[in-house]
Write a structure and sequence with these properties.
With 431 residues, the chain is of the alpha+beta class. It has 14 helices and 18 strands.
Length: 431
Amino acid sequence: MTDGERHDDWTNWSGLLTARPAARLAPGDIGALGDAIRTAPGPLRAVGTSHSFTPLVQNDGALVSLDRFAGLIDHDPAAMTARVGAGTKLGELARAMHAVGQAFPNMGDIDRQAFGGALATATHGSGAALGAYHTGVEALTLVDGAGKVRDFSVTKNADDLLAVCPGLGAFGMVTEVTIRNVAPYRLHRRRTSLPIRALIDDFPARMSAHRSAEFFYIPFSRMALFITSDLTDSASTPRPPDEDDAAVVLLGRVQRFTGWLPPLRRALLKRAVASAAREDYVADWLAVYPSQRNVRFNEMEYHLPIEEAPKALAEVIERLETRFPGIYFPIEVRTVAADEAWLSPFYRRPSASIAVHHTAGLDHRPYFAAMEEIFRRHGGRPHWGKMHSLTAKELAGLYPRFRDAMAVRRDLDPDNRFVSPYMARLLGVER
C-alpha cells in the first residue's frame, strides 16, 4: 500500500493504552501520504513517539508514522524562521536549530516527542509571558481527509490556521511547519526548596518574577522544589547530574516504609527535598529545559485561569493528603501565556497548569477522578494529550470557538477519515 507497511501491535509510553491496527504505514513522501489517506483501512491516526496519555492514537484502522517527514528543511536568518518536518523529534530539532543560530523561545521538560505531536496537543513549557509551541507557527502544510495538500499561513488564511493548530490530528496529517524563533540564549537555572504555603499565598508574584518558573510539590512534605530560569550572559557552568528519576524512586520507598507514620514520613521527605534543591548552573537553552523521564507514569493535567490556581492547588493537596496516602509522585505547577488558537487550552486566558501523576501499572482512576472534579470546578481546560474524561458536550462550553473549529474540520475531513471512536466522542462526530 505504501512504504513501511506493518501490522505490529501498538502501545503508548506508559503502557496503559494498546491497539492492534489493521495497518502501520510510513509513507516516504507527500504523494504516498495522500495515497495512504485515500486507500488505507480507516480510520487513520498519525503516530509519533506515543507520549500522549489519552487515546489520540489508539485505533484499529491504520497508524501512520511521519518519521520520514523530519529534519530542518530550510531557515531564514533575517526573519528568524525555520521550516521543519513535522516528524522531527524535539531534541533533534533543537540541536539543528541551535547549529544555524536559532532557538525555541521556550520548551517543555521532555524533548522526545515528535514536533507535530507537540503542536497537535498544545504542549508547552512554563513562563507567564511564554506561549506553547503552537504560538510560534507561521505556516503549515497538511494532507486532508481526501488526500489533498492544504497550506495555511498567518498571511494567507490566518483564521483557518488558528483552527487547525493545535488540531489533535483531526484536520489532517501535518507534514511540515514554518516556525518563528529567537536567537540562541543562555539560561541561569536555580532550584530551591520553599514551603508550599509560601508559593500558594504569593503565587502570581513568584511565578511572574522570572522568565520561567515552575514548581513540584512533594506530597505529604509541605515543601516544594521551586525552579527558575532567567536570561544571562554569564559563561556556561557544568550541569549537575539529572537525578529526577532516582528522586521519584526514593519518594516511593519513603511512602512504602513510612506511610504508616506521617510525622516520620514528613521529616524524611523534608530532608530529601532540601537535598534535591541544590541546583544552580548556567547553560545554553537546549541544555536547560529537557529532563530524563524514565520512570513510567500516567498523568492528568488541567489548565486553569491563573487567578483560580492557588485555590485549586490548595484543594488538590488537601484532598490528596486526606484520601490518597499512597500517592508519592510530585504535583507539577507551571504557567503559560494566553494565545488565539481556537482549540488551545490557553485561548485568550493566561493560565496555570496543574499536573498530577500516578505510577504506571496501578489504578489511577480514583485519584484522577477526585482531582478532575476540583480542576473542572475551577474552570480548568484539559491538556489534550493527558488524561481527562471530557467529551464534546463539555468541551464546547470551555472553548468559545469549538463549534467554529469543528466546521473547519468537516470541510477538511468530510468523510471522517481521521475520526476514531475516541475522537468521535471528543469532537462530537456521529459515526
